[in-house]
UniProtKB/TrEMBL annotation:
Positions of the Exostosin GT47 domain: 117-425
Record protein name field: Exostosin GT47 domain-containing protein
Primary localisation category: Golgi
Keywords recorded for this protein, A-Z: Glycosyltransferase, Golgi apparatus, Membrane, Signal-anchor, Transferase, Transmembrane, Transmembrane helix
């Protein structure tokens, strides 16, 4: 062999060795320096350890994501323990994340407050206003819990909206909780679009409106008085007269004492039934769904038209005060029909299971006005993919500016519903094709009504924040108009 041929092969050998070495070095470096890379190490940890679902870039057009819902996996309403639920859902997703396998292809980012739909400042209210009501006691001066205390089950849960929204804001500060970036919590109120008041008003009403022992004033009223006093003293409140404050008062009787004084704020409500129009109205307030009590039927197991033997299902109390007269009349009209299932009684205890079964095997579920225009029943029907028949002229529906309820609900005016034969003729006239279209649509939109932690794109928590962000500009508009002739700022 000549010298000439040996030198190049040696050279190539060295070249390969050096480049392999450089390759290994650079990949090691990339892994190490993940703090400064676009994908923080915590995201990797989360995906590998917790196996939580893939991150979806909220700035990309959102597609309806069909996923098994965390909340639907836990069916015993009376014993829902969110901490348990979180670990269960983590388990459940860790299996499926392997199937997804597309983690690397999805863009991962940390929420950026400049790009968020909504920047929210949350008051550091003492725990007696929020997690203290769940029996949580922190260390001295500790405002927020590290482990999430469970929200009480049973009927309380239907108004637990305050809890899910607060948890979502708290998790906005935890880098490895993967959630939509619609809302980002900011710690400087001047940078916020909205000021959130973390008062668990529904729980306060449900648990503390009775007088105990020698109390002259209930804890619920005391908290509301304290809250009013606190808010009136805040610069944040004075700045815009409370217009940019967000207060959750989902139980129709919550905030009864304070609602008038805080009426300039935006409310998150179940309906407007017990509010005068100047205190609560669609222009500034948000209608949020009840948290449904029956378990969500998985899309793949949802019974079809032919598999649902019952035409019309209703469960609840038949005799109601106020607007509930229609129920009674309907009952007498329908009770003897063979494919109608009119059930008495509350949904508490085993009632939930019965309602789950009943709704999941019925084509149509009746939602008639009770003592308030809205009720949990509508959201139970949606979770069961039972086409809701809404007989409640005054009802306001969540997210109706983005959701067309006529695609998956039947609306019947109260006056028509009580005409003999009207309702059944209407419903029997809806053939399999038409019904199936509505049922398919129900399966597409059901995830908008799921409350869960961590929140997922398009779920109820995310939808509420998006709805708030759509109100912000009209609130701002009204506030600016009011200032036109305000001379006080001209006086030094
Ligand atoms: C994810 O796992 C890490 C490490 O095990 C843990 O510290 C963190 O709390 C988990 N996050 C969630 C959302 O479960
Ligand atoms: C899937 O998760 C369940 C718990 O939900 C666990 O028992 C099972 O071993 C997991 N399977 C795999 C393949 O990880
Ligand atoms: C709690 O806050 C008070 C007032 O700011 C302070 O004096 C006290 O030292 C704090 N206690 C603890 C344990 O940090
Ligand atoms: C809060 O934000 C405002 C406006 O961006 C800024 O002027 C102010 O200095 C900030 N305050 C603090 C404490 O960072």
């Amino acid at each position: 062999m000549s010298e000439k041929s040996r030198i190049p092969s040696k050279f190539i050998f060295y070249l390969i060795t050096v480049s392999v070495f450089l390759l290994i070095l650079s990949s090691l470096f990339l892994l190490q320096s993940s703090n400064t890379s676009f994908i923080p190490r915590s995201v990797f940890d989360l995906i590998l350890v917790n196996g939580t679902s893939v991150y979806f870039d909220p700035h990309v057009k959102k597609e309806p994501i069909k996923r098994p819902f965390a909340s639907s996996e836990v069916s015993q309403v009376d014993a829902v323990k969110p901490s348990k639920r979180i670990s269960e859902s983590a388990c459940q997703v860790s299996n499926s994340s392997k199937k997804l396998g597309s983690v690397g292809r999805k863009k991962m980012i940390v929420c950026d407050s400049n790009q968020a739909l909504l920047r929210v400042f949350m008051y550091e209210l003492p725990p007696e206003f929020h997690f203290g009501l769940l029996g949580w006691k922190g260390m001295e001066n500790q405002t927020w819990p590290r482990r999430i205390p469970p929200y009480p089950g049973g009927l309380n849960l239907q108004h637990s909206i305050e809890y899910w929204l607060t948890l979502d804001l708290l998790s906005s500060d935890i880098p490895n909780v993967v959630r939509p970036c619609s809302v980002v919590r900011v710690h400087n109120s001047s940078q916020a679009d909205v000021i959130f008041v973390p008062f668990f008003s529904s729980l306060s009403y449900n648990r503390h409106s009775m007088l105990h022992g020698k109390e002259k004033v209930s804890v619920n009223k005391k908290l509301q008085d304290k809250l009013v006093q606190f808010l009136m003293g805040q610069d944040e409140w004075k700045r815009k007269g409370g217009n940019d404050h967000l207060i959750v008062a989902h139980h129709p009787n919550s905030m009864l004492n304070a609602r008038r004084k805080l009426g300039s704020a935006m409310f998150v409500l179940a309906d407007f039934g017990r509010y005068p129009a100047e205190i609560a109205n669609l222009e500034k307030d948000i209608i949020a769904p009840y948290r449904h009590l029956v378990r969500t039927v998985p899309s793949s197991k949802s019974a079809t038209f032919k598999e649902r033997p019952v035409l019309v299902y209703f469960r609840g109390t038949i005799y109601r005060k106020d607007g509930g007269v229609i129920r009674q009349e309907l009952y007498y009209l329908l009770k003897d029909e063979k494919d109608v299932d009119f059930n008495f009684g509350s949904i508490q205890g085993n009632g939930v299971n019965k309602a789950s079964q009943g709704m999941a095997s019925s084509k149509f579920c009746l939602n008639t006005a009770g003592d308030t225009p809205s009720s949990n029943r509508l959201f139970d029907a949606i979770a069961s993919h039972c086409v809701p028949v809404i007989i409640s002229d005054e009802i306001e529906l969540p997210f109706e500016d983005v959701l067309d309820y006529s695609q998956f609900c039947i609306f019947v005016r109260g006056a028509d519903a009580v005409k003999r034969g009207y309702l059944l003729k209407l419903l029997r006239g809806i053939n399999e094709d038409k019904w199936t279209k509505m049922w398919e649509r129900l399966k597409e939109i059901v995830h908008h009504f799921e409350y869960q932690y961590p929140s997922q794109p398009g779920d109820a928590v995310d939808m509420i924040w998006q709805a708030v962000s759509r109100k912000v500009s009209s609130v701002q508009f009204r506030f600016h108009r009011k200032k036109r002739y305000d001379r006080s700022r001209l006086v030094v």
